[in-house]
User: Fold these one by one.
Assistant:
Number 1:
Amino acid sequence: MTKLAPVLSAHWDEKDSFTIEAYTRNGGYKASKKALAMDPDAVIQLVKDSGLRGRGGAGFPTGMKWGFIPQGDNKDHYLVVNADESEPGTCKDTPLLLANPHVLIEGCIIASHAIRAKHAFIYIRGEVTHVVRRLNQAIEDAYKAGHLGNGIELVLHVGAGAYICGEETALLDSLEGFRGQPRLRPPFPAIAGLYARPTVVNNVESIASVPAIIENGAEWYQAMGTEKSKGTTLYSLSGHVKNPGQFEAPLGITLREILELSGGIRAGHSLKFWTPGGSSTPLFTAQHLDVPLDYEGVSAAGSMLGTKALQIFDETTCVVRAVLRWTEFYKHESCGKCTPCREGTWWLVQILRDLENGKGTEADLAKLLDLCDNIMGRSFCALGDGATSPITSSIKYFREEYIAHLTLGACPFDPVASTLFEGAIK
Amino acid sequence: MSFTDKDLATMESIIKRYPRSRSAIMPLLHYVQSLAGYVTNDGIELIAKLLELETAEVTAVSTFYTQYKRKPVGDYHVGVCTNTLCAVMGGDAIFAGLKEHLGIENDGVTTDGKVSLEHIECNAACDYAPVVMANWEFYDNQTVQSAKDLVDGMRAGNPPAPTRGPNTLGTWKEASAVLAGINDGKANEGLQAGTPTLLGLKLSKEGK
Amino acid sequence: MTTMQEVEMISLVIDGFEVSVPKGTLVIRAAEKLGIQIPRFCDHPLLDPVGACRQCLVDIEINGRAFPKPQASCTIPVEPGMIVKTQLTSAVAEKAQRGVMELLLVNHPLDCPVCDKGGECPLQNQAMSNGQGETRFEGVKRTFQKPINISSQVLLDRERCVLCARCTRFSEQIASDPFITLNERGALQQVGIYENQPFESYFSGNAVQICPVGALTGASYRFRARPFDLVSTPSACEHCASGCDMRTDVRRGKTLRRLAGDDASVNEEWNCDKGRWAFKYVTALDRLTTPMVRNSDGVLVEASWPEALAVAAAGLSAHKSAVLVGGRATYEDAYGYSKFARIALGTNDIDFRARLSSDEEREFLAAHVVGSTTTYRDIDLADQVVLVAFEPEEESPIVFLRLNKAFRKRALKVKAIATKLSIGVEKLKGEFVKVAPGAEASALSSQTLTNKSLILVGERAAESAGLLSAVAALAQSSGAKIAWIPRRAGERGALEAGAIGNLLPGGRPVSDAAARVDIAAVWSTQSLPSENGKNSNEIIAAVHSGAIGALVVGGVDPLDNEASAQMLAALDKAFVVSLEIAPSAVTARANVILPVAAVTEKSGSFLNWEGRPRKFDAAVADTHNRSDLRILSMIADEMDRTISLATVTAAAKEIASLGRWDGAKSSLNKVSAATTPSLSPDQAIITSWRRLLDLGTLQAGEENLAATSRRTVAVISPKRADDLGIKDGDRLTISTQQGSVTLPALVEEIHDDAVWAPRNSRGSQLLSQLGVAHGAVVKVAKA
C-alpha cells in the first residue's frame, strides 16, 4: 500500500499557511537563499538529477527544459508560470495557491536564477478572485521582505476566461496582449518565447516543487515515485466518491489505493468510468483501478497522466451526456484558429446532442469516430486532440450504451440519480 | 463615461508593470470593467490610445475572453459550473433552478440589476462540486436551495460569504479591480483551505 | 550586402521526385516547383505562415524519422533528407485533406450561384479537386447577418469566411493598418472592425482580392458580373508613379473591376485602393467625343476631324507656339508632344510639369533624375531612407508598402524631413525631423548618410527653394542614392521623352550640340532649336507679353498651379489647341478641341519613378478614340511638318532606336534656400500635400471610394493651438488675399510656424481657394 507523502501540502492545515510569516516559520525562503548562492548551472543540474517532470500534463523533464535556455546570449530571459488551471477536473494549483502562494514565489526565484531570468510572470486564470488576492499579497510581501526586487521581478498576470491559454504558446500570446491563440512552433519558447526571448513556461506545481528539492536534495526527491516518474504529486479526487479532495502521494499510486484510503465510491454505488488526468485524457473504467498513476503507467494503459485530475463517475452517470458536455466545453473553448478544431467541435456537438437524445443510427457512431480521426492530429494544437479523447475512449468502452440511446430513442438515465442531492430538486 | 486623473494614473501604473506596454491590455480591460462594469467603447478607445494600438486590436482581444462583458452584468455575477462533473452532480439542476427562480436566461440580468447569470466551465474546484461562483468567488458544495438562498441574499443586499474567500462578497466592479491587480486588503480573510483540500494531509497524519 | 551571396540549396524528395530549392523555402512552395499543387487557403507567399486552415497537410519524414502526424506544408521549411508525401502519394495526407475540406464546408453556405467569387473561388475549385461530392454534415450551419459594411467600399459576408486570416494578416503585416481583426472565439470567430472605426485603409482592396472565398467583396463589383463574362487585359496603373502591374476586367466595353497584378520587383501582388477602384472616371466624366472648333462668334461648335485638324494646324502655323502637357501622358504620347514641339512647332518651349515647379527642379531633373537607375530594390538594401518633401503613403503608396516591408522585416531606419508628422511616417516608426515650411534644405544638409543610404525626394521639393540643391549636395558628399518620385504616372516618362525645355529624348541636354545631332539624325531634320526652352511659368508669361501666340495643351488642369489666374488669362488670350478626354477649364478657353483616348482605351506604357517601363494594351477596344500621339501626328501632317508617329508601336520603336544619352549631363546650379519669414501671431506658413484619396479628377464617379478618404482637417501645433485658443475640433480659418478655407482643427505634431491642410480635398482646395500651397505666409484664426 502506497503511503501519502505531503510535501507541497505539508503545512496547509495551519490557519495562516498562506502568510509570509507562516511560510518563513516553516522554513520558507531558505531554499532560494541556498540556490542563489549556487551557480545557476548547478541548480539546473540538481533539478535534472531530481527527476522532476512537468506537472501540467506533458511530463517533460523540468531541468532539461531549463537547460534549453541559451546561456550567455545577452538577451533577456523570462520565466512564465502557467497557473491557468482550467482543464476539466483539474483543481490542484488553485488550492495550492490559496493555501501557500509563497512556495510558488520561492520556486520562481530559484527557477529565474537558474535560467538567468530577471523577470518572471505568473499567468493565472481570471475566474478565481481570492486566489488572485492571495498571490498578489504574497508577491507584495515577498517584495517587502526583499525576496523579490533584488534582481528578480515577479508580475502576476490575470487571465480573463480562456481555457486555451493553458497551452503555453497561447499563454505567451495572451501575456503579450494578444488573443490567446497558439503560435507556430518552432521557434520553441526556449528560443523565442515571451517577447521573442528565451522563455521557460512551467506549471505551478512543477515550480512549487523546486524549493523542497533544493532544500532536501535530488536524492531525497528521487527516492520517491517510480523509475521514470520521480517525486510526489497532487492527485485531485472528485466526483462520485465518499470523500473528494487533494491527495499528495508518490507518483505511481493507483486509483484503487486512493479510493481505499479516502473511503471509496459514494455509498451504494460503483465505479463506472473515470479520467486519470482531466477530460482530455482518454477515459478509464474499473478495469484500470490498478494502473500505476505515473507518466509511463497511464500511457501504457492507453491514456495520459495529464493533471492527475481523477474525476470519478458511478453507474448513475450517462457516459453520452458526460461526453457531450465535455465536447460542448471544447467547442466553447476552441480558439477558432484552425479548421479541424473550430469546425470539428461545432459538428461533434451536434452529433452527440442527437445521440444523447436518442436520434440517429449506429452509422453515426462510425461517422463520429471518423470525424475524430479527421480532428486528432490534424489540429494546430492539442485542444483538438483532447476534444476527441472522451469521444473515442467512451465509444471504445461504452458502445452499447450509445446504442441503447438509439434503441430507446432517448437517454436511458435519470439525471437526478447522479446528483448529490437526490430528491432535493423539483 | 469619463475617466478621472486618478483612473488614468492607475492605468499608467498597470502599464508600467510590464516590459512591453501591450501586455497591459488584459489588466486594463479588467480595470475598465471595475469602473464601468463592462468593456465600454470609451474604455476600448482609451486603452487603444494608452497602448498606441488601433481600436480594432483592443476589440479583438476583449472579445476573445469570456470574462470581458459587452454589456452590463449584475452587481453580483453568478456563474454555475455546468461542465461535466459539476453538471452531473447537480450543476445542471442548480442552473435550471436559478434561471427559473430569477426569471432570466443564460447571460441575463435581473431587472433590478442585482444579479446576472451565466453557466460556466470548470472552475478548478471539482473536489467541492457542485460549484457556483459569484463575482468569481467560490461557493462550494451547492444545492439548488443553497444557490437560491445565495441569489436571494444578493437581491436583498446581504449575500452569504463565499466558502473560500473574503468575509463578505464584494461587487462585480470590486472583483474586477482585484483582477486588475489592485490590492483590496482582503487577502488574509477567509479559510486557507477547505476540508477536501486538507483530506490527504489529514489522512497522512493518521498514518495513511 | 547579401544579394550576390551564394544561396544554399537544399535537396528533398516530394512524391518521389527530387527537387532542389533555396534554404528556407517552405515545403508547399518546393512542391509548386515540381508542379505539385497542395491545396491551401491561409497560405500566401507574401504573408507570414500561420498554419491555420490545415488544408495543406502532408506526410513528412526526415532522415528516416517520420513525423507522427501530418504537417502543414505551408509552415515547414525544407530540410536536407526530407521526404514529403502529398495527397498524391500518401493516403494519410489525402484523407487529412479531405477531412479538412469537409470541415471547411460544414459551415460554408451553398450560395455559390449568387456569390461574386463563384467561378474564381479557391474554395470552390479545391472543393471540386480535393473534396468529396457529398457532405456528411446534417446539422445546423452557422449564420450571421449579411452582409455588413466594414467600410463604405468593403462588404463582409461572415458566413462565407473560412477564417484563413489572410485579410487580417495583410492589414497588419503589409499595410500596418490593423483596422480589421479576428474577433470572438471558436466557431463564432469572425473578421470584424471596432464599431466606430471602419476598415479605411488605403490598401483595403488587397484584402478583398486575396480573400479565398466570397467573404470580402468590393461594393463597386458586388453582384455586377460573373468572372467568365469578363475579358481580362494586363494593364498598368495610371494613377501614380509607383507603377503597379494591374489587370483590367471588362465586360461588353465597360471596365467592371481592376485587380493588382503580380510583379515581384514592383508592386509584388498589391496595389492601393485608388488604383483598384478609381476607374469610373472614364465613363463618369462627361467625355468629349467629337472635335470642336470655336467659330467666329466665339462659340464652340462640333466639327469634323479634317476640319478641326486644319484649324489647329493653321492656328499653330500662324503663331509662335508652345506645348503644355500634363504629367499623365503615356511615355509614347509624351514623346509625341516632345517631338511635335521640336519638329512641328520648332521650339523647346515645352513643359510637362503642370504643377508647382521651378528652374532649380528642371536642372535637378536633368542632372540627377533623367536616366537614373535607382529602383525599389534600393529600398530593400538601404541602411537608411530619408524622405524629402515626400509622403509615400499619400503620394506613392507602393513605395510606402516597400518601405514598410523593410521596416517590418529588418527595422529599416526611415527619417522624414517634413513640416508635419504623417500617418504613414508614424506607421514606419520614422524619425520625424520637424522643419518650418521652406526650411527643409538646411535640415536636410545636417543629416549624416552613407553610400548605402537612399534619399526619396518628392515633386514637392520644387516648392522649397534650395531643397533640391541640398539633396544633390548631400548625395554628392555621402554617396547616397537619390530617387525622385513624382506623383503622376507620366512624369518620369515625359522627362525621359524630353517633354521639357532643357532636355531632348533620352536625357540629351538641349544645350549639347552632339546631343542635338543625335536626335536630329533620327528625326531626319536639319537642326533642332538650341536654346533651352521656357518653363511653364515662362510660357504663360510669354503669352501675356505676346511672345507666344499659340498653345498646345494636353491633360493639364490650370487649377493645379499657384498662378492659375494668369494661366487662365493666358488660355483666354492665346490660340489654344486642347487634347482632352473631358471638358475642363482649358476646354472653355480652347480654339480647337480634339478628344483623345483614356488610358484604358489605348496601348502604351508609363515609366514609373524607377524609369521602369509599364506597358499596357487597350483594355477597352474599339472606342475609336485616338491616342494623343496619333492626333499630334495628324496635326503635324496637316502643318506639313510630319513627325511620323502614327502608332504607339512606331513611337516605341523610335524611342528604342534613340537609346540613352551617354554624354555629360548638365549640372545643377546651386540655389540658396530662402530665409524663413518672421511671423506675427496671427500668421503661419502654409504647408500641404495631396492625399491619396481626394478630389483628383481621375477619382470621379466612385463615391464608395471617396467615402473612405481621410477627414479634412487643418493641422496646427499644440503651441499655436494654445496661442489661438483652439482645441481639437474647433474650426480654424486659413486665409490669403485670394480667399480662405475654414476647417476643423486638429492639434498634432507639426512645426509651430506651420499650418497644414490637404491640398485638394473636399473643402480644402488650396491652390484655387488660397492661391498658395506651401511656404507662403497665411493668416490663421479661430473661426
Number 2:
Amino acid sequence: MVHQYRNNGYNIALDVDSGSVHILDDLSYQLIAELEKNRALTDEELTGMFRDRYDPSDIQEALSEIHGLESAGQLFTEDIYKNAVIDFKNRPTVVKALCLNIAHDCNLACKYCFAEEGEYHGRRALMSYEVGCQALDFLVAHSGNRHNLEVDFFGGEPLMNWEVVKKLVAYGRSLEKKHDKHFRFTITTNGVLLNDEVMEFCNREMDNVVMSLDGRQAVHDHMRPFRNGKGSYELVVPKFQKFAAQRKALGKQYYIRGTYTHYNLDFARDVIHFADLGFDQLSMEPVVAPADADYAIRPEDIPVLKEQYDLLAQEMIRRQKEGRGFTFFHFMIDLTGGPCVYKRLSGCGSGTEYLGVTPWGDLYPCHQFVGNEQFLLGNVKDGIVRTDIVDSFKCCNVYSRKECRTCFARYYCSGGCAANSWNFHGRIDDVYEIGCELERKRVECAIMIKAALAGSPES
Amino acid sequence: MKHIQTLSTRSLQQSLKKGGCGECQTSCQSACKTSCTVGNQTCEQMKKN
C-alpha cells in the first residue's frame, strides 16, 4: 500500500508497509499513483499515458527509479506482519507501567476533565503511602525481565498528595538494586502548587514532567478555572517558565501539554503562544468529550483543524531554520530509530502492560477507564482477578479493527485509543473517527516536516 | 536519483526479525493521555546502539 499526498509544496509517497518515505517530482508522483491503482501496467503503457506531457526518456528514467525501489523493498511492499503480531499479542505479557492516580482531587475545575474535577465518578481521595508501596510491589512482581519500569503520578492533581509522591519515589528507588529494575517516574501537574522544593525534587527524580497549559490566557482561563471561576493562567505560567528553564538547562525532558476544544479551533496560535513564552517541548491534543458537550470537537470542525496543523507545521519549519525551533509531540516521528513493527501494530498496551491505579489500589486498564466499574480488573494487593478483561485487551491490535486495515497511519497510532473507542462506540476494538482523521493529518505533517528539514526539493 | 529522493528510514520488515523485546515505553506514558501515538517513540534497542 502506498499513500501519496501533497503538502506545503512537497509530493510525498509513504510506502506504508515498509515505512519508506519518498519525495517525488510531479512525474514520478503520477507514475506511482497509476501503478498503485493498477500494478499490471507495463512501462510501455505508462510511457504512452504520459508522453504528451513528459519526455519519454524522463519517463523511462523515473520508471527505472521506481522499479529500483520496488526491488529494494521500499515501494509497493505488502503487509506481512499479521500472524507475527497476533502471536506477539498472545504471548504472556508483563506489566511495565502504572499510572498512579495519587490524588482523586483537584484544585482546579477544568471544564473538560475526564476525571470530573479529579473525582473520577467517585469520591475524593488521596492514595496512602501503603497503597502506593503495594502498587510498586505489584509492578515489580509482574514485570518479568523488563528492566525499565514507568510510573506516572497522575490525578486529579498529584501535588495535592506531594508528601506521598516523594516517599513513593524513595520506596521505588529502594527496590531498584534488589530487583535489578529502574524506575522512570513522571508527574503531570496543573502548576497551582508548584514551588521551588517541588521543582528541585522533580529535577532530581522525574524523567519527565508534564505541565498542563492550554495556550493564550483567554483560552486557558476559559477552560481551566479555579472552583471560584477565576482563571489559573497568571498563577501557573511564571512557575512553568522557571521549571522548564531549569529542566532545559539540565537536559531533562518536560512537556507543556494543552487540550484544544471547539472554543479554540485556531489552536496553532496557542501552540505558537507556548513557543513565544519560551517553552520548546510542546504538546496539544484535541479534547475527547461527549458529542453533545458544547466544547466537543465536531465533525464539521475537522477541515479547520487540519488547516491549523498545516499552519503549525509551516511555522515549526520556519523557526527551526531560524535556529529557534521547538518540538511538537504529535509531529515527532522517528523515521530511523522508531519502534519495531510489533510495537507499531500491537496497540497501546492498556489493560496488559499499562494499568491505572486508583487511590485505594483498584486496577483498571488505563487512566481513562478508572471509575468505570465494568473494567475493574482487581487491586494491587490481590492482583488481577478479571483475566477475561485483560484477554479482551490482548486482542486489541491494528488487525482487530477493520478501519485500520486500509489506513496508512496504522503504523503510527497502533490502532488508536481503546478508551476513546469505548466512549464513542461501547466497545474497545472500534475506532474514534474524529481522532483518526486528525491523527492521519498529523502523520502527514510530521513526514512533510522531515522532508522539508532534510532539504528535499519542492515540486 | 533524479526523480525521487528517499528519506532514511528504519525498515519495518527488518524490525520484524529483530524487534519485539518489549522494553519500549507504553504509549500514554509521556505527553499524550487521550490519544494513541507510537510512531514518535524511540526503540530502546536503537538507543543502546
